[in-house]
Amino acid sequence: MNDLGRPNTSGSYQSDDDKSPYGEGLTSHQQPSIDIDDGFDPAYVKRVIRKVDLRLVPFLAACYSISLIDRTNISLARAAGMGKELKLSIGERYSIAVLAFFIPYILLELPSQVGLRKFGAAIWLSSSVLLWGVVMIAMGFVHNHHQLAGLRALLGVFEATLFPGCAYLISCWYIRRQVQVRLSIFYVTSVAISGLSAILAYGLAQLHGRAGLSGWRWIFIIEGIITAFVGLLGYLIIVDLPDKAKFLSEDAKQLILTRIQRDRSDAQHDALTLKKTARYALDIKLWVFALMFGASTTGSYALSYFLPSILAGMGFDTKFSQILVAFPYIYAIIPAVTTGYLSDKTQIRSIWIVINALLAIMGMALFTFLPRTMVAGRYAGVFLCCGGVNSNVPLVIGWSQVSIRQQSKRAYTSALIVAFGGVGGIVSALVFMEKQAPTYRIGIWFTIAAHIFIIVACAGLSSFFSFRNRKADAGEVVLENHQGFRYQL
């Protein structure tokens, strides 16, 4: 490969881990003007990227929106009568059912990514969606809380692969300055659609009595059928890595691979081995990103599982509170896409995470501590919190993806971070205790503390990255096994 990252004459890519893309002896601050798209027609580049965008992001977002709906519709089914019928108010039965999902979800994150790389994204992800659709249908026929918890655990088994798989897949198709906004669109679109699930659940609950089934059972059955259908479509729509993309011409595939190679020199496939896994586990920054992600998802899962109850505590009746759940999630599209775009545009990552964390804290303070009579102000706080929390989930994972190289490390990092996201779900289930409904003061205080940690971690990680970049510029260290690599703050 030449200095500009063009493919060699055989059309394959070779690793240049020990070479700088800026030329011999040059640092990132001394680099010549190198255009990643040099030699390509700009209009052609835009057409290819747009084609990839339309094929990759919308369907993955649809799959993840279904994932969010299927793991969180337990709160809506509970409000629609499941809680009373299965006696979930006794002890911590409801929290245990919520918690059961996350144990296999966490444990299977990394093995699931090995499976994805072995069998391909289309087969692996589609099969996962199809199988958890079957589990959802089965949840419509449970008769006690033990069966519910068991099927929730099985749901966690099949959902474990999706989010890290989608994040990994998106990061493998785009250069670093284009990844974040697409991750944000992917995530927040999923969240917004899942927010509308409250309205769907309300409609499905009106089927109460049909075929002798309670309304809440129809929520699981119909949504399970939809999930299984989407899983079948996935076999036809989901794409694998760029070098295997059948929907692109050979020229278009070479364009994608060349841009990635010029950007970060990891277009080539490298296997995720046990030796590499052990080495990646020693990279401290990955654990910091994982902790930040877990802190972010503590808030997002808390809203998913307990927001209907919180809104009911503001004085709204149960049915109306289900509908009101949707609007804060729709609003979240605005801050998520905006901060995602600005993160890519400025190539500064931490400041937008800090801003969203502050908005989330402000929102929690409003809906928790304002007088009960100030319903409008408290509901406005839900909007701020929902926007801040759900904007940070893709920002944290996006920052982690642009801070590393190599496909195997990208897959490992996605799995590690999303596993800690599952830990955030466990924590939210434990600190938002049923006996404290609908105010959940301990849970709210814990979530505020988690977002303060995010702010502190951003400051620490940015300082560390700045220090390492200066060392690299001075020629004292090589970052990510590549002389031209620099961290984005």
UniProtKB/TrEMBL annotation:
Residues 56-489 form the Major facilitator superfamily (MFS) profile domain. It is found in: Membrane. The chain crosses the membrane at residues 94-110, 122-141, 153-173, 185-204, 216-238, 284-303, 323-343, 350-370, 376-399, 411-432, 444-465. It holds the Pfam family MFS_1. Residues 1-34 are annotated as: Disordered. InterPro entries: MFS (IPR011701), MFS_dom (IPR020846), MFS_trans_sf (IPR036259). It comes from the Eukaryota. One of its GO terms (cellular component) is membrane. Its main location: membrane. GO terms for molecular function: transmembrane transporter activity. It is a multi-pass membrane protein. Keywords: Membrane, Transmembrane, Transmembrane helix, Transport. PANTHER family: MAJOR FACILITATOR SUPERFAMILY (MFS) PROFILE DOMAIN-CONTAINING PROTEIN (PTHR43791:SF3), PERMEASE-RELATED (PTHR43791). This is MFS general substrate transporter. It comes from Acaromyces ingoldii.
